[in-house]
Amino acid sequence: MKLAKVLTIAGSDSGGGAGIQADLKTFQELNVFGMSAITAVTAQNTVGVHGVFPVSTEALEAQMDAIGTDLAPQAVKTGMLYDAERIQLTVAKIRQYRWNLVVVDPVMIAKGGQTLLELAAIRAVVEELLPISTLVTPNLPEAEFLTGMKIRNRKDWREAAIRLHEMGARYVLIKGGHADEDVEGTSATEAVKSTESTDAQEFVNKRFSADTEDDGERMYTNQVVDLLYDGVCFVEYSGPRIHTKHTHGTGCTLSAAITAELAKGAGVREAVGTAKAFIQAALEHAPQLGAGHGPTLHAAYRLHGPAPAAGAAR
Ligand SMILES: Nc1ncnc2c1ncn2[C@@H]1O[C@H](COP(=O)(O)OP(=O)(O)OP(=O)(O)O)[C@@H](O)[C@H]1O
Ligand SMILES: Cc1ncc(COP(=O)(O)O)c(N)n1
């Protein structure tokens, strides 16, 4: 059988747990041929992000052209795109080369709170990236940023998915890793307050004014649930919450696994189920590295098999 080719357009994580490194490890584990276009280099370890160095737009364009003119990928994933200029360039190349299976992980803020996407670029994510995406995979704070609404309960969660679908994403997966946090104090609202860009403040504040009443069902605590919406149906993927601080790169790994499965021909529902089992196993067997938030074990799904009860859709 022909080997499926997959491209990740994302930032490099020197610590190896997230970004390009997590994506390529995941692609390898799921038997697809991984390729990369690097948007920014981060100096990062389990303790935090110590530096962010954007790659020139010329260098980013040259990487995407090199792949587009020779190694046509079956599916593409975007991760940390850093700013509006790099988002616009990425969208232009996706259109030029007709890459039409596109998984967008709208990476904005690292687990440690450091900004990985300039706030002024949120407008470009909404207006340019979402309309060309097959699937968008925000975590809860990112879903709040993109929709402008607070997500306090399961009713809000579904409402946010509907809004993201209306904004142009064909499928929406809102991940629940952050559902055990204090929703009032999410990094989304805190980050808006601290930004120096008035354009970003105006844009995000306007979006946050569309608030909803807190009258829905409560969030989940013992389970981690990811919610998929296709414009008609909701599907929940549920697995036991693993109580660990080693969750660095879980979002990158999940979306990379989905991309790999789509490239091999799976449908979105099936691909998300496999990816959820992949990340569950990777978290359960996290190698306990570093002094801070360590990485997961990307080889765990192959070495130990899918974790029981992971990836169950209902
Ligand atoms: N403690 C946990 N136990 C089990 N599954 C988890 C846990 N934390 C996250 N997950 C799973 O990991 C995936 C990523 O979820 P999360 O909401 O943490 O995304 P994220 O914040 O984008 O990740 P990151 O920013 O670390 O890359 C989801 O499939 C989620 O269900
Ligand atoms: C280059 C890069 N891309 C993505 C993330 C998000 O991962 P996390 O939220 O676990 O820090 C990251 N830290 N670094």
Automatic annotation (TrEMBL):
Residues 13-205, 221-296 form the Pyridoxamine kinase/Phosphomethylpyrimidine kinase domain. It comes from the Bacteria. The keyword Transferase applies. Its EC number is 2.7.1.49, 2.7.4.7. Pathway: Cofactor biosynthesis; thiamine diphosphate biosynthesis; 4-amino-2-methyl-5-diphosphomethylpyrimidine from 5-amino-1-(5-phospho-D-ribosyl)imidazole: step 3/3; Cofactor biosynthesis; thiamine diphosphate biosynthesis; 4-amino-2-methyl-5-diphosphomethylpyrimidine from 5-amino-1-(5-phospho-D-ribosyl)imidazole: step 2/3. GO terms for biological process: thiamine biosynthetic process. Coiled coil: none annotated. One of its GO terms (molecular function) is hydroxymethylpyrimidine kinase activity. InterPro entries: HMP/HMP-P_kinase_dom, PM/HMP-P_kinase-1, Ribokinase-like. Keywords: Kinase, Thiamine biosynthesis, Transferase. GO terms for cellular component: cytosol. It catalyses: 4-amino-5-hydroxymethyl-2-methylpyrimidine + ATP = 4-amino-2-methyl-5-(phosphooxymethyl)pyrimidine + ADP + H(+); 4-amino-2-methyl-5-(phosphooxymethyl)pyrimidine + ATP = 4-amino-2-methyl-5-(diphosphooxymethyl)pyrimidine + ADP. It holds the Pfam family Phos_pyr_kin. Belongs to the ThiD family. This is Hydroxymethylpyrimidine/phosphomethylpyrimidine kinase.
